[in-house]
């Protein structure tokens, strides 16, 4: 049943999410780790209820189906966000995005448990208790604290150290270095917003920049209260022992500025000026002054290498290390916000949406310096944050706390530019069309608000038309634009109703490899709505997706498999996948070196209830590979491999004997002890099948 397939997808997504905790070191350093724990609590409450529903094959209401689909989407997005965190991305943006998704997931789960109360008690007996337990899951929101702080800034209200520390702790800014990196990231994001005349976002980011400046000033005031400020490294906030000067003229402790550069941060931490080279010039004058001062005051400067090697070299939060007893200083007038264009209360919700609307946490993104230097053949846009590099072209930004007023009329200027590009799309000149699609691709790549403006100007219909272009470059750029636009939920409906599905399938059949893969990703993005999936099937999407699963790149194969998982929910579609050679391609994808094993096993588990698939898996050599995943795979892989083997062995002594001969019993026994809840259940079911077969054979003999 389609309901069961959806529930299995949700269970798979939950299992994948829970498996993140196995990388505890990576998770503990994630600034949003507390939200992971909150979602984990709810996910663990959901799993037994979902398992009961799958086992019962019960018919579910449309509201429940929609609720489960929504939960699946939120959990999958949260998994992607946690797996793709990059240390040089904006921590504030990232945490607010995670918080927004976690809040939506919590509200959605409350609605689902409320609806489950109306099902028979034997199916969902724990639902009443679960409803109350979900209500107890923490929901403190830093977004509210930040909104209030920005409002207070506008009013000239002095922010207390407690507020600054609360925000810093909530977004993972636990050191002076973290604060300085966040300031650099926000500076670059502000410049990007100004580049496209997005004044609302630029103004909001300025407010956040001022918050980070106050955090830095507060920490510096603690550290430097009794010592000459010129003797301190702006990065470590400790007395320098080997001061060196960088190209911006600022002086730092050598070990700390070298570490800063090693992280790829080609910008002065204090002035945020872009640096074209990393030459370090010893500052012997400052070094001599520090040595004389230390001798006169009987002070031993700290060892910078020891500070760097310690776990938390520059703790911000009061209560950490030796600074736990330091008093909270009262900020003087120099720390007050005196800019005039910050946020007011009526804008808080709008500005909060600016932060949480994007599909990924913003990182330090490259800028378009000029059209002449723009590379048209870019890599496809990613839905997760990419490795962040400070561009050498970043403009110098002073450290003044005053915020200059933004220009007005940016949105209208953007619309004029976009409408001109849309006219160029309709030009008879191929060069004009190439330039227009390339520019639209750039504009839709990184900044979510651009996507809204471009869709509002009517670009979607013109881009859909270009999917039939004979020029492969135009076709590839057009499909990538549509993929980027589909990342904004508000654009999905417009794209779906533009007649996009047949053109996307046309690209799947005729485009170059980049175009085919981005077309697939667009289908994945749009396939969350059931009516869209129906249109994709009517457009003939399954056959070319199966082919891409056979001859695409590893990423293309994984995306094709994801699309087929979403589309092949009924036996009719599953049989189309099987007839097209899908099982053969999935078995080929189970090569660990290709990095596609997990996705292949998910699809095999989805197909394995169809008789033709069972035969194809057996004849294609899939059973030993599934057993290998049960033994050596990731938690998610083990779950799905065990689920696939369960379906193969159900009511079939022949398949049971084949699986036993492949040595499945020892890893299955191990899985009953150490696997996830769902993996344990599947392993126990398989072992019961084997035991029943053994008893039957004994009776016959």
Automatic annotation (TrEMBL):
GO terms for biological process: protein ubiquitination. Its EC number is 2.3.2.27. It catalyses: S-ubiquitinyl-[E2 ubiquitin-conjugating enzyme]-L-cysteine + [acceptor protein]-L-lysine = [E2 ubiquitin-conjugating enzyme]-L-cysteine + N(6)-ubiquitinyl-[acceptor protein]-L-lysine. Pathway: Protein modification; protein ubiquitination. Residues 392-413 are annotated as: Disordered. Residues 226-300 form the U-box domain. InterPro entries: ARM-like (IPR011989), ARM-type_fold (IPR016024), ARM_PUB (IPR058678), Armadillo (IPR000225), PUB2-4-like_N (IPR057314), RING-Ubox_PUB (IPR045210), Ubox_domain (IPR003613), Znf_RING/FYVE/PHD (IPR013083). The keyword Repeat applies. SMART domains: ARM, Ubox. It comes from the Eukaryota. Keywords: Repeat, Transferase, Ubl conjugation pathway. GO terms for molecular function: ubiquitin protein ligase activity. Transmembrane segments: none annotated. ARM repeats lie at residues 458-500, 540-582. The keyword Repeat applies. PANTHER family: RING-TYPE E3 UBIQUITIN TRANSFERASE, U BOX DOMAIN-CONTAINING. This is RING-type E3 ubiquitin transferase. It comes from Brassica oleracea (Wild cabbage).
